[in-house]
Amino acid sequence: MSVHPRLSINQATIKHTTVAEALRVTADAGIGAIGLWREQVQDAGLAESARMLADWGLRYSTHCRGGWFTAVEGPDRRAAIDDNRRAIEETATLAAAGAPGSRAVLVLVVGGLPDGSRDLPGARQRVRDAVAELAPDAQAAGVTLALEPLHPMYASDRSVLSTLDQALDIAADFDPAVVGVTVDTFHLWWDPDVLAKIERAGREGRIATYQVCDWKTPLEADNLLSRHYPGDGMIDFGPMTRAVEAAGYTGDIEVELLNQAIWDTPPAEAVRRTIDGFARAVAPHLG
Amino acid sequence: MSVHPRLSINQATIKHTTVAEALRVTADAGIGAIGLWREQVQDAGLAESARMLADWGLRYSTHCRGGWFTAVEGPDRRAAIDDNRRAIEETATLAAAGAPGSRAVLVLVVGGLPDGSRDLPGARQRVRDAVAELAPDAQAAGVTLALEPLHPMYASDRSVLSTLDQALDIAADFDPAVVGVTVDTFHLWWDPDVLAKIERAGREGRIATYQVCDWKTPLEADNLLSRHYPGDGMIDFGPMTRAVEAAGYTGDIEVELLNQAIWDTPPAEAVRRTIDGFARAVAPHLG
To answer: Which stretches make up the Xylose isomerase-like TIM barrel domain (chains A, B) (predicted)?
Structure first.
């Protein structure tokens, strides 16, 4: 199975790898791009991670992930904002070290309701406020903040943003180079208006990254880990992929799979299966 | 804790009851209304169920449930349509036997993707077709079909309708007395536009029933069973309840809880806790 030139491995797919290992299995498989996770980058050291990325000659597709800033004002919120500032710097450093075509995109999972809170509108407003606070830092660093709407089943514990329109409505106050959105099939496939929303995202210049991942029921007992290789589940990747293409997105396409069985697979094998799934389910819909 | 006059027990909350037991614990608790499930009604016999309902003097709030008609044309689809015709007759019979204020409302859970299918638009079209086929029967029987959008986490296996607007768009082709919608907090609470959609449902005369149920994370391993007593989770019942009131809905309000721990509770105790939860979390928002 040939490797599609726009395929990128998100390190979550090969979670139990160091940065060095993730870069090696990705490059060894003939894949041209990668998105790393902050924890592993911090374990390896940012400068060393950037050096290794440059040595392998891979493009950097996204940095995962910032966000988690729905807390009310106070020390926890300040810590979250500061941590996002560090994530912005990491993103800029890694994107600069990546091969030509690298993108300085920081994916933002915004967070759920604070403990004991039922105030969904308030949490959403605090997301907007956090983006406003971080936008100047992102702009200065040349980084795009990519708001990611997550599946509504995560609305209380992971993301009070559930739809692409919510993310676009927040992004609308900012330069598209500074605030964009993440389009992830797993989170959005059920939305009856998803194609129109992708079209809007393109028209407004907001698609910062496109991630492909399949949905299959029954879900895993831990629903966070229910993400599958493209083609293994119920998602028809054609319409969304063509819509993202038509919307003008030409960047790398990440596969980010949180799934215990995949994590239990040797990383090189998980990467090989990702290549196959992408070739079967996604690539035929790319121009 | 006093019993709110509009509270209705949906039999799913006390799943392991016969119709006789469900009617008794509901009436004994001083609750004025009930919604029964088809399986139990068929076990007891329709005529006998209707007689017992009349004897206890309870209002009938909904009949649960019809739907499951996303199959492609063929014997399975024909069987599903026929089964829904029986459900319509059951609904009419039970509502006629209930106390004044009873409503002939058949809740419809439409079904997910057929096995092996990824054609979500096709399944949604078949829902529309099934409603068109059943509407004359419902009209003749004086029954309202109440399309229920389910949480998007059930889009593949239980309901290809995920939003109130989807249900309203289908209903729009029919008389509001014949096709309406079910507003259930558990399924809709995450929707950033839920209040506007409830307002639309009211304006179009479509709110056939309002069900209250709480959402709490982490979800149960079987996410179908993650429904909680009002007040025990993360939902703010105020805005949605006030919106349903403002939309003109004056009927009974059901509590339908699919939850193994609640099913393991003696039915009378589960009913008592439902009364308490309703009084604390929902009743303060009713006029």
So the answer is: 24-276
Q: In chain B, which residues have their Cβ closer than 8 Å to the Cβ of A260?
A: none
B74 by Cβ neighbours in 10 Å (0-12 / 13-18 / 19+) ranks as exposed
Amino acid code (one letter) for B78: R
**pLDDT class for B257, splitting at 50, 70, 90?**
very high
Confirm or reject contact between A189 and chain B (CB < 8 A).
yes
Is the Cβ pair B236, A118 closer than 8 Å? yes
**Segment B186-230, tens digit of pLDDT:** 999 999 999 999 999 999 999 999 999 999 999 999 999 999 999
At B125-147, the pLDDT tens digits run 999 999 999 999 999 999 999 99
Instruction: Estimate to the nearest angstrom the gap between the alpha carbon of A44 and the chain centroid.
Output: 21
Average pLDDT of chain A, as a whole number? 98
| Inter-chain CB proximity B234 and A156 less than 8 Å | yes
Query: Which residues, including other chains, have CB under 8 Å from residue B160's CB and lie 6 or more apart?
Result: B70, B110, B111, B112, B113, B120, B123, B124, B127
- In A39-156 the beta strands, taken as DSSP E runs, fall at 59-67, 105-109, 144-147
Task: Please tell me the distance in Å from A156's CA to the nearest CA on chain B.
Answer: 7
Separation CA A236–CA A242 (nearest Å): 11
Task: Say yes or no: B156 contacts chain A, CB-CB below 8 A.
Answer: yes
Q: Are B201 and A229 in contact (CB under 8 A)?
A: no
CB pairs under 8 A between A and B: 76
pLDDT band (50, 70, 90) for residue B1: low
pLDDT at A227: 97
Contact B185, A224 (CB under 8 A): no
Query: What is the rounded CA–CA span in Å between residue B275 and residue B287?
Result: 18
* A29-72 pLDDT per residue, tens: 999 999 999 999 999 999 999 999 999 999 999 999 999 999 99
Residue among A124, A156, A165 whose CB faces B215 most closely: A156
pLDDT at B92 over 80: yes
> Is A165 close to B192, i.e. CB distance below 8 A?
yes
Q: Is A152 in Cβ contact with B191 (below 8 Å)?
A: yes
Amino acid at B53: L
Instruction: Check if the beta carbon of residue A91 is closer than 8 Å to that of residue A143.
Output: yes
The token pair at B107 is 């809740």
Q: Residue B287: is its pLDDT beyond 90?
A: no
Over the stretch A191-239, which tens digit does the pLDDT of each residue have? 999 999 999 999 999 999 999 999 999 999 999 999 999 999 999 999 9
Q: How far is B237 from chain A (nearest CA, A)?
A: 9
Q: Is A14 exposed, middle or buried (0-12, 13-18, 19+ CB in 10 A)?
A: buried
Domains recognised in chain B with CATH numbers = 7-285 (3.20.20.150)
The 8-class DSSP code of residue A16 comes to: T
Helix, strand counts (H, E) of chain B? 11, 10
Do A156 and B118 lie within an 8 Å CB cutoff?
no
Q: Which two tokens stand for residue B185?
A: 């907090």
User: What is d(CA B181, CA B174) in angstroms, rounded to the nearest whole number?
Assistant: 12
Q: Say if CB B182 and CB B200 are below 8 A apart.
A: no
Interface of A with B in 209-268 (CB under 8 A): 215-219, 221-223, 234-236
Residue-averaged pLDDT of chain B: 98
